[in-house]
Amino acid sequence: MKFGVVVFPGSNCDRDVAYVTRDLLGQPTRMIWHQETDIADLDVVIIPGGFSYGDYLRCGAIARFSPVMQQVIEHAQKGKFVLGICNGFQVLTEAGLLPGALVRNRDLHFICDRVSLKVERNDLPWTQTYSAGEVIQLPIAHGEGRFYADKATLSKLEDNGQVVFRYVQDNPNGSVRNIAGICNPEGNVLGMMPHPERAADSMLGNTDGLKLFAGLVEKVTALV
């Protein structure tokens, strides 16, 4: 399978993601400059963390209008896979691929830490290598990571099983219902604030994040 990693002006986790998919998992991976308009060769598109367009106006608000994003939307509508990490999650909500919004952290401070997450679903390609209810640890680094949605949207997310990850023990940013990651109803689009790519190499002492990428590779490879 082939991965593509979108690069906006201000992206800073793009090479980290590519290291995981290309070097650790041995999958073909290419960097997608934000002005590209042909991504038909890709199976998975990843929008990485960072500060797209300097986070001016609002996180993800300008990146949403990059030429590549219309292609990402069409990619998702075809049932192909899209992953948004941190700033990428913000971009996906701005683009309408995921509901809700990411707003300023509860204490209005940038947070760089490690958090515990509960895996709410393990029946998705993203999470099939985890156990149901498994608690994992992943790094976070964000200033606008507090997930917010109105009551009707939250009810729909819960009823449809779209909450994939929740913070446990401590909610670092004040996200409603401790939500750390959600998917679309079909399950092929995933957005999450924590960084799985920063917990993928054994040299770092934590490979909890590698399972997310490896599970997807395993699932898609089995379908081919």
UniProtKB/TrEMBL annotation:
Active-site residue list: 86, 195, 197
The keyword Lipid metabolism belongs to this UniProt entry's keyword annotation: no
Pathway: Purine metabolism; IMP biosynthesis via de novo pathway; 5-amino-1-(5-phospho-D-ribosyl)imidazole from N(2)-formyl-N(1)-(5-phospho-D-ribosyl)glycinamide: step 1/2
Superkingdom of source: Bacteria
Catalytic activity: N(2)-formyl-N(1)-(5-phospho-beta-D-ribosyl)glycinamide + L-glutamine + ATP + H2O = 2-formamido-N(1)-(5-O-phospho-beta-D-ribosyl)acetamidine + L-glutamate + ADP + phosphate + H(+); L-glutamine + H2O = L-glutamate + NH4(+)
Any one Gene Ontology molecular-function term assigned to this protein's record: glutaminase activity
SMART domains according to UniProt: GATase_5
EC number: 6.3.5.3, 3.5.1.2
InterPro entries (UniProt xref): Class_I_gatase-like, PRibForGlyAmidine_synth_PurQ
Keywords attached to this entry: ATP-binding, Cytoplasm, Glutamine amidotransferase, Hydrolase, Ligase, Nucleotide-binding, Purine biosynthesis
GO biological process: 'de novo' IMP biosynthetic process
Cellular component aspect of the GO annotation: cytoplasm
Subcellular location: Cytoplasm
Protein task: Part of the phosphoribosylformylglycinamidine synthase complex involved in the purines biosynthetic pathway. Catalyzes the ATP-dependent conversion of formylglycinamide ribonucleotide (FGAR) and glutamine to yield formylglycinamidine ribonucleotide (FGAM) and glutamate. The FGAM synthase complex is composed of three subunits. PurQ produces an ammonia molecule by converting glutamine to glutamate. PurL transfers the ammonia molecule to FGAR to form FGAM in an ATP-dependent manner.
SUBUNIT field: Part of the FGAM synthase complex composed of 1 PurL, 1 PurQ and 2 PurS subunits.
Annotated PANTHER family: PHOSPHORIBOSYLFORMYLGLYCINAMIDINE SYNTHASE SUBUNIT PURQ (PTHR47552:SF1)
The name this protein goes by in its record: Phosphoribosylformylglycinamidine synthase subunit PurQ
UniProt organism field: Chlorogloeopsis fritschii PCC 6912
Top-level taxonomy: Bacteria, Bacillati, Cyanobacteriota, Cyanophyceae, Nostocales
